[in-house]
Automatic annotation (TrEMBL):
This is Cysteine--tRNA ligase, cytoplasmic. It comes from Astyanax mexicanus (Blind cave fish). GO terms for molecular function: ATP binding; cysteine-tRNA ligase activity; metal ion binding. One of its GO terms (cellular component) is cytoplasm. Coiled coil: none annotated. It comes from the Eukaryota. Its cofactor is Zn(2+). Its EC number is 6.1.1.16. Catalyzes the ATP-dependent ligation of cysteine to tRNA(Cys). HAMAP family: Cys_tRNA_synth. InterPro entries: Cys-tRNA-ligase, Cys-tRNA/MSH_ligase, Glutathione-S-Trfase_C_sf, Rossmann-like_a/b/a_fold, tRNA-synt_1_cat_dom, tRNAsynth_Ia_anticodon-bd.
């Protein structure tokens, strides 16, 4: 202790018995020198005081130390008072006041305000997200939620360094799926029978124009024109009117061909046109007649399985990370049954005619519980409640089973033509809301940190989820933070098929890259309405171009030849000023992300940083000075890392967006870099000679190669380093490069009179 660094005697304080204390000290000193000529320290003195007397002789090291300190202690005490006289000592030190570091706040729909984000279990974040109901193609409304949540998830994981466990469901049992699957199945059967032209005509006319006949045969079925007349929703009405117009347009030629006794082939051709235009109308009619006869569960699984596959392809194309756990309703029916049973056991539900309903009044009246935490003002909204129950579950007999119109189904007794599973209440199927509660509860337990979904799911879906889950777990904190993404409009209008502005994800990706779509989302608040329009996408495209040009300029500067020491250049006032701005912008980006993950403000701060960097580069070049490589490289690295955090850059490139066509996974930049370097060196050599010879045309052509051809170049060779063929488009660019190089060289030869 007196000779080998500081004496850590704290362990002696934890031992109360003197004998054990001496034994522990002896063991501590057995591997340490204490008689090498150094003087004792204050720590030796403090440890000496802890002993009541000399240690036992069997503790030789401790005894030897004790005698040594005992001999020196009087000298230590005598010198203590004079130890500071005439001796310089370190001045007092105190830590800086520091500044308050911004902390992450999230807009919580449970309070409708931004709340400090505090996970329940340290750094771990349990997150459940409502997934798609898979019965049709994924559209931009889906993209609004899933890209936005992917951005939030990546930022929480990669920027704030939370350990996020992300669970999402696939709804593959639902009223919409059941009806669509039946209709598709029956239409396939109808086509397989190869009905005659006159039969197709008769069936279409029957459904469309003969309400008396239809109502006599099927009292619960409305013919198309009655349905059209009674529809009040403007979007749905417009969609039905468009369908009616299309069917009418296809009817006339077929009727004319039959009346004129046209050739069979011509009549059949017109019949096929009518069948295609009237398929939605006919499938609805077929479902009304024969839907109850569709009983095989496998028929109801084929449709969602197909569309789930398409959904995953779309998410992959959008660079949306897959969930850590994906749950399907069809795989969790036993857990759902047990979940419903416990709600009944806890007294918050009741059985009625083979169905089970949640008793909202009893739950709301219970101590510690509250119904409709998210949108309490929506309680009693019958339209919203009926949409939550599903089209197949709002018949008069079903509604009469409830104690209150505000109650909702936990388990539905299956009707003929619906899939069914065994349960204590008879054959049936899960209600919509119970699916998420049972699956999330199975994976995440009695409470989660974050629950996410679209804005339109707040009531009744999420409010019902909260109620039944807290009824099951008997708590009032099933979800700590509820995040809801904003609506998506199309050029200012609600997206709907009736307005012909229904845009699938595949449609969107055919016009814009996944990065451009993500940038458009990043440039808007995740919780507010986003308008998908030409102006929105043009802003994203211009932002991408602005950033891309900066990255290309930095790469060009970094390609300037230098030795290993030459890359470290002296900082002048301009570099100090830019670096100061760099750190200010980083702080501003951090503040924006802490403020409800405000990516819009973050991107604006990043844009401002690039503008200042561009101004710095321009000023240096104007003064015929090289920009500071390391400073620009640091800025470019930071911006690249942020775009990777946002999911806007894939790959391992240290700087900028990957070079090549959208979706190319090959490291094309590494493949073509040798060619770029050769051309860059060639260009610099020609420019040097052209300046000496004052040949401005050659200088201009060099600038064209630098400013126009190289930035646009995706690649040169026909095969990459692994021998894989590069696209024809890239090969054309290669030829463009060679042609430009040849033209440049020929121009030089023509202007250099001596031809050297």
């Amino acid at each position: 202790p007196a000779t080998c660094g500081s004496f850590d005697y704290g362990f002696l304080l934890r031992i109360s018995e003197d004998a054990r204390r001496a034994e522990a000290l002896n063991e501590y000193l057995s591997c340490r020198s204490y008689l090498a000529g150094y003087g004792p320290t204050q720590a030796d003195a403090e440890a000496f005081k802890l002993l009541c007397g000399p240690p036992n002789q069997r503790h030789a090291h401790a005894l030897r130390w004790y005698r040594h300190i005992a001999a020196l202690l009087p000298q230590m005490n005598g010198q203590a008072a004079d130890s500071t006289k005439g001796k310089r000592v370190q001045p007092p030190w105190s830590p800086p006041d520091g500044t308050e570091i911004p902390k992450l706040k999230l807009y919580n729909s449970l309070t409708r305000t931004k709340e400090l984000f505090v996970p329940q279990r340290g750094n771990r974040v349990l997150w459940y997200c409502c997934g798609p109901t898979v019965y049709d193609a994924s559209h931009m409304g889906h993209a609004r939620s899933y890209i936005s949540f992917d951005i939030l998830r990546r930022i929480l994981m990669n920027y704030f360094k939370y350990d996020v466990f992300y669970c999402m469901n696939i709804t593959d049992i639902d009223d919409k799926i059941i009806k669509r699957a039946r209709q598709n199945h029956l239409l396939v059967q109808y086509r397989a029978k190869k009905p005659s032209a006159s039969q197709i005509l008769q069936d279409v006319l029957t459904y469309r124009k003969h309400p008396v006949l239809i109502l006599m045969l099927f009292s619960v079925f409305q013919p198309f024109q009655v349905k059209l007349a009674e529809t009040t929703d403007p979007d749905k009405k417009q969609m039905l009117e468009r369908l009616d117009t299309a069917v009418t347009t296809a009817l006339t030629p077929l009727q004319g061909a039959i009346q004129s006794k046209a050739p069979d082939a011509a009549i059949q051709k017109q019949a096929e046109v009518l069948l295609e235009e009237a398929k939605d109308l006919l499938s609805d009619w077929l479902d009304s007649q024969f839907g109850s006869q569709v009983t095989e569960n496998s028929i109801f699984s084929l449709l969602p399985k197909y569309w789930e596959g398409e959904y995953h392809k779309d998410m992959d194309a959008l660079n949306v990370l897959p969930a850590d756990v994906l749950t399907r309703v069809s795989e969790y029916v036993p857990e759902i049954v047990e979940f419903v049973k416990k709600i009944l056991d806890n007294g918050y539900g009741y059985e009625s005619n083979g169905s089970v309903y949640f008793d909202t009044a009893k739950f709301d009246a219970s101590s510690g519980h509250s119904y409709a935490k998210l949108v309490p003002e929506a309680v009693g909204d019958q339209k919203a409640l009926q949409e939550g129950e599903g089209d197949l579950s709002i018949s008069a007999d079903r509604l009469s089973e409830k104690h209150s119109q505000n109650d909702f189904a936990l388990w539905k007794a299956s009707k003929p033509g619906e899939p069914s599973w065994e349960s204590p209440w008879g054959k049936g199927r899960p209600g919509w809301h119970i699916e998420c509660s049972a699956m999330a509860g199975s994976i995440l337990g009695e409470s989660m940190d974050i629950h996410g979904g679209g804005f339109d799911l707040r009531f009744p879906h999420h409010d019902n989820e909260l109620a039944q889950s807290e009824a099951y777990f008997e708590n009032n904190h099933w979800v700590r933070y509820f995040l809801h993404t904003g609506h998506l409009t199309i050029a200012g209008c609600k997206m709907s098929k009736s307005l012909k502005n229904f845009i699938t994800i595949k449609d969107a990706l055919a016009k814009h890259t996944a990065r451009q779509l993500r940038l458009a989302f990043l440039m808007h608040s995740w919780k507010d309405t986003l308008d998908y329009s030409n102006n929105t996408m043009e802003s994203a495209i211009q932002y991408e171009k602005f950033m891309s040009e900066f990255f290309l300029n930095v790469k060009d500067i970094l390609r300037t030849p230098t030795d290993i020491t030459g890359q470290f250049e002296k900082w002048e006032a301009e570099e100090i000023e830019l670096n100061k701005s760099f750190y200010e912008k980083k702080e501003a980006v951090h503040e924006a992300l802490c403020d409800n993950i405000d990516t819009r403000s973050a991107l604006e701060e990043m844009r401002a940083l690039v503008s200042q960097s561009n101004a710095y580069v321009a000023a240096r070049k104007s003064a015929k000075l090289l920009p500071n490589r390391m400073l620009l490289q640091s800025i470019a690295h930071y911006l690249t890392d942020m775009f990777k955090t946002f999911g806007a850059i894939e790959g391992t490139e240290p700087i900028g967006f990957p070079v090549g066509n959208n979706g190319q996974s090959a490291d094309l930049e590494s493949t073509v870099m040798p060619y770029l370097n050769v051309l860059s060196d060639f260009r610099e050599g020609v420019r040097k000679i052209a300046r000496e010879q004052k040949v401005t045309e050659v200088l201009q052509l060099c600038d064209v190669v630098r400013d126009d051809i190289l930035p646009e170049l995706g690649g040169f060779p026909t095969h990459d380093a692994e021998g894989k063929e590069i696209s024809k488009g890239q090969t054309k660019k290669l030829r463009k490069l060679y042609e430009a190089q040849e033209k440049l060289y020929n121009e030089y030869l023509q202007t250099n009179q001596n031809g050297s």
